[in-house]
Specification:
The chain has 459 residues and is an all-alpha fold. The protein is built from 18 helices and no strands. α12 packs across α13 and α17 packs antiparallel against α18. The N terminus is likely disordered.
Length: 459
């Protein structure tokens, strides 16, 4: 693809039908997010069906979730704020400034990956025990974690740098990043787990290999002639004036994802105390279901972000409003449909991950409680992420903290004091916090939206 073609691709963000443009960007982003989800879900599906040890191994791998989420969170800290700023700079026709942002963000994500790899590898046993691992599940959790963390640099490059491709309008290329990696993972998982008889270690090795291929694909494209905004060696030296504003925006995404890690620890420790390994195993499946909700929402918002940010930077308020309307409606409709499916056919979801009768029954019961407020996430995520796309770092951070850090995590420990069935109380914390956070975030967004557009960028 020529540079002229890349410029035309970028310019289209400010022209034509907003609905068609959003579909062209969001659909590949949603597909990419769902396929990215397969990295963890496919592992859990195969692991959960290992003969004799499947339920224990699944619970053990589920205990690795806080570490996986923390790796993702630091990738978001380094890059998620840089993505909308790159789009805003493109809207201002400042390609050089946009390239400095890309270079600084990628450099930071590499540094963070190295530090995390060393720390987590050393302290993995202590961390997993703290997360709720029992003597029966710790060996599986430790085997998976130490192999996975050695490949964390590939995971963080893919998650952090990949969205810079979408920000330039190359949604299909960005989608291929995860399609290629996921396809490799799906093929390698059964080979390493069953053919080579490596169990959870095999699942981790398959994941690392597939993420390495995805990372190579991202770096090759960003350094190639196809991009208007390229990753260049001269921009890898971190400058405070460049990375500072990116981190200010990225903090909200970091909080959203890192609190998933804290949240997982809170859930697992409480459930381990009140319900044992069976309740923790059910939570592992519920975590995968939550990702089935969140990943498409993030894909829609990721696809819509370049349109919102570019036109905000260009001062085109009407296109920003139209883009948000489509993002909002898409997210709300999706979460409402997912809520209905969770209430009507919970056994279908549980059966994907386990054939163990006891774990199946416990999970079906938990789904109807835990997912009772999932319809509200469409409101909360679309508004919170639109704050981010508009460069509103402070309010985006507050809304990111509200649902999990301010509401959900305290409720996990508070509600059991008021219920005889303490496992029920722990699961109930999720819908209560979902609904309250959605109401507050939606009201905050609509009360500030027009004022933000009137103020504009630097005006």
């Amino acid at each position: 693809m020529s540079e002229a073609k890349a410029k035309t691709n970028s310019a289209s963000l400010g022209e034509g039908s907003v609905g068609k443009l959003l579909a062209s960007l969001a659909l590949p982003a949603v597909v990419a997010q769902v396929i990215n989800l397969l990295y963890n879900i496919v592992d859990r599906i195969y692991i959960g069906h290992i003969p004799d040890i499947g339920a224990r191994a699944l619970t053990g791998v589920g205990l690795c979730t806080p570490i996986i989420m923390m790796v993702t969170a630091f990738a978001m800290l380094a890059c998620s704020g840089g993505v909308p700023r790159t789009s805003i700079f493109m809207g201002k026709k400042d390609v050089e400034g946009a390239e400095k942002i890309v270079g600084n963000c990628v450099a930071l994500v590499i540094i963070l990956a190295v530090v995390l790899t060393i720390l987590i590898y050393i302290f993995a046993p202590q961390l997993l025990t703290w997360f709720g691992a029992s003597s029966a599940t710790l060996p599986y959790a430790l085997s998976y974690t130490r192999i996975y963390i050695l490949g964390s640099i590939f995971v963080m490059i893919t998650l952090g740098a990949g969205p810079f491709i979408t920000a330039q309008g190359f949604a299909k290329i960005s989608m291929l990043t995860t399609v290629i990696g996921a396809a490799i993972n799906i093929v390698l998982d059964p080979v390493f787990i069953f053919v080579f008889n490596m169990g959870v270690r095999g699942a981790a090795i398959a994941t690392v290999i597939s993420q390495a291929v995805s990372a190579a694909w991202v770096l090759k494209f960003l350094t190639g002639p196809q991009c208007l905004v390229r990753l260049r060696m001269k921009n890898l030296r971190i400058a405070g004036s460049v990375i500072g504003p990116c981190l200010a925006l990225g903090v909200s995404s970091f909080v959203m994802v890192s609190t998933e890690s804290i949240l997982s620890i809170s859930f697992n420790s409480s459930l381990s105390r009140y319900g044992g390994d069976l309740a923790v195993g059910a939570m592992t499946i519920l975590t995968s279901m939550s990702q089935l909700v969140m990943m498409p929402l993030q894909g829609v918002c990721q696809g819509g972000q370049p349109i919102v940010s570019f036109n905000f930077g260009a001062g085109n308020a009407d296109r920003v409003k139209k883009a948000f309307k489509y993002i909002f409606l898409t997210c709300v409709v999706y979460t409402t449909l997912f809520w209905a499916a969770s209430m009507l056919v919970p056994r279908m979801f549980a059966g994907i991950f386990t054939g163990d009768a006891a774990l199946m029954d416990r999970t079906v019961w938990a789904i109807r409680i835990y997912m009772a407020g999932v319809f509200s996430l469409g409101f909360q995520i679309s508004c919170q992420q639109s704050f981010l796309a508009l460069g509103q770092a402070k309010i985006s951070l507050v809304m990111a903290c509200l649902r999990k850090l301010i509401l959900l995590i305290p409720l996990i420990f508070i509600l059991p004091n008021f219920f005889a069935d303490k496992v029920l109380a722990v699961f109930l914390a999720e819908p209560v916090s979902d609904i309250i956070a959605a109401a507050v975030t939606t009201l905050a967004f609509f009360s500030r939206f027009n004022k933000t557009l009137e103020k504009g960028v630097g005006r």
